């Protein structure tokens, strides 16, 4: 997606060879017009997929997922990270380990929000090692829902997330695919021709 690549080139900061900071439009500040275009792009790529719900994880997945849900005309559900104080049986729970943050989060989704008849599109801001994506897939699996695929805003293609999801047979649509962050520069996998 050209608009997104240009935005990353202009406003993204390479923090290390593995971390891209995009806090002016995605992770802290949010660009609503860009989010709208992202929502339209995912909706168009997954059109006809019979999607009934969009699923993401708080907090940075919510903005692109919300615009996607709006375009598809379906509800959005976000998995919550806040730990529940008591064991409850009205939620699906999965543990998600973050290599970036070196911490494990327990995420939950209320059982009533995801049903066996649902077809879910999973949206997230970043795909790194695929821990969050796999955790969401397991939540959808617990619900008996079908997974239409993954809509990823920024894929770090040099990390293992895509390969891992593809091995599980999932469809992945990523709007910006980063080949490398070496030498402080962003290189995309598919440079736009036009
Ligand atoms: P994984 O799920 O694909 O394995 O990724 P990882 O554990 O590395 O990601 C943990 C958190 O770090 C996620 O946010 C993810 O979006 C974010 N992240 C991963 N790589 C990058 C990067 O290069 N740049 C930025 N800006 N973020 C990255 P989170 O903990 O869920 O936080 P939130 O922002 O959604 O609240
Ligand atoms: Na994030
Ligand atoms: Na995220």
From TrEMBL:
<dbReference type="GO" id="GO:0006166">
    <property type="term" value="P:purine ribonucleoside salvage"/>
</dbReference>
<dbReference type="InterPro" id="IPR050118">
    <property type="entry name" value="Pur/Pyrimidine_PRTase"/>
</dbReference>
<keyword id="KW-0808">Transferase</keyword>
<feature type="binding site">
    <location>
        <position position="156"/>
    </location>
    <ligand>
        <name>xanthine</name>
    </ligand>
</feature>
<dbReference type="InterPro" id="IPR000836">
    <property type="entry name" value="PRTase_dom"/>
</dbReference>
<feature type="binding site">
    <location>
        <begin position="128"/>
        <end position="132"/>
    </location>
    <ligand>
        <name>5-phospho-alpha-D-ribose 1-diphosphate</name>
    </ligand>
</feature>
<dbReference type="GO" id="GO:0032265">
    <property type="term" value="P:XMP salvage"/>
</dbReference>
<feature type="domain" description="Phosphoribosyltransferase">
    <location>
        <begin position="47"/>
        <end position="157"/>
    </location>
</feature>
<dbReference type="Pfam" id="PF00156">
    <property type="entry name" value="Pribosyltran"/>
</dbReference>
<keyword id="KW-0963">Cytoplasm</keyword>
<dbReference type="InterPro" id="IPR010079">
    <property type="entry name" value="Xanthine_PRibTrfase"/>
</dbReference>
<feature type="binding site">
    <location>
        <position position="27"/>
    </location>
    <ligand>
        <name>xanthine</name>
    </ligand>
</feature>
<dbReference type="InterPro" id="IPR029057">
    <property type="entry name" value="PRTase-like"/>
</dbReference>
<comment type="subunit">
    <text>Homodimer.</text>
</comment>
<keyword id="KW-0660">Purine salvage</keyword>
<protein>
    <recommendedName>
        <fullName>Xanthine phosphoribosyltransferase</fullName>
        <ecNumber>2.4.2.22</ecNumber>
    </recommendedName>
</protein>
<keyword id="KW-0328">Glycosyltransferase</keyword>
<comment type="similarity">
    <text>Belongs to the purine/pyrimidine phosphoribosyltransferase family. Xpt subfamily.</text>
</comment>
<comment type="pathway">
    <text>Purine metabolism; XMP biosynthesis via salvage pathway; XMP from xanthine: step 1/1.</text>
</comment>
<feature type="binding site">
    <location>
        <position position="20"/>
    </location>
    <ligand>
        <name>xanthine</name>
    </ligand>
</feature>
<comment type="function">
    <text>Converts the preformed base xanthine, a product of nucleic acid breakdown, to xanthosine 5'-monophosphate (XMP), so it can be reused for RNA or DNA synthesis.</text>
</comment>
<dbReference type="GO" id="GO:0005737">
    <property type="term" value="C:cytoplasm"/>
</dbReference>
<dbReference type="GO" id="GO:0000310">
    <property type="term" value="F:xanthine phosphoribosyltransferase activity"/>
</dbReference>
<dbReference type="GO" id="GO:0046110">
    <property type="term" value="P:xanthine metabolic process"/>
</dbReference>
